[in-house]
Amino acid sequence: MKIIGIVGAGKANKELLKSAEEVGRLLAIEGVIIVTGGLGGVMEAVCRGAYINGGITVGILPTDRKKDANPYVKIPIPTGMGEMRNSLIVRASDILIAIGGGYGTLSEIALALKTGKKVIGLKTWNIPGIIESHSVEEAVSIATSLIKGK
């Protein structure tokens, strides 16, 4: 199975959350496993979209308690590592999609690019190396095309 990591804002506006949920829905239809940080915001929205559509969602949690995962995480993995768990999200993923986000998301993008992983950006940081997408459908299309080539 191919794994796509979704990184993004822990707190986001309605538009970004709607986009994240649609990304989750479309990826579930494609049959990929989704890995997130397992908490709220973009992470919860993408997990909700995938979960409702039969997708497999993995949450790599910063805490040491499974119960901290959002309700749409099928497989919670508590780490007790705080933000250091960002590298686990990146390493577990074949490709990443970044949706919005602040410095935590930027750290995940940087780790991914440093390790040679492709990062598709949707309303996120505009830095060299990110493959920019202008819509949910484009982000998912790029990600699934790239992952099929792996």
Could you please describe the fold and organization of this structure?
It is built from five helices and seven strands; from the N terminus they run βαβαββαβαββα. It has 150 residues and is α/β, with parallel strands linked by helices. It has one domain (3-136): Rossmann fold (3-Layer(aba) Sandwich). It has a seven-stranded parallel sheet with strand order 4-3-2-1-5-6-7, sandwiched between helices.
Helix content: 40-55%
- Helical run tally: 5
CATH fold descriptor = Rossmann fold
Tell me about the largest β-sheet: 7 strands, parallel
Helix-strand sequence: EHEHEEHEHEEH
Shape-level CATH architecture: 3-Layer(aba) Sandwich
Mean pLDDT: 96
Structural class: alpha/beta
Taking strands numbered 1, 2, ... along the chain, how are they ordered across the largest sheet?
4-3-2-1-5-6-7
Distance between the termini: 11 Å
Write the layout of secondary structure elements.
Layout (H helix, E strand, L loop, with lengths): L2 E6 L5 H17 L2 E4 L5 H11 L3 E6 L13 E4 L7 H7 L2 E5 L3 H12 L4 E4 L7 E4 L2 H13 L2
Helix pairs in contact: 1-2, 1-5, 3-4
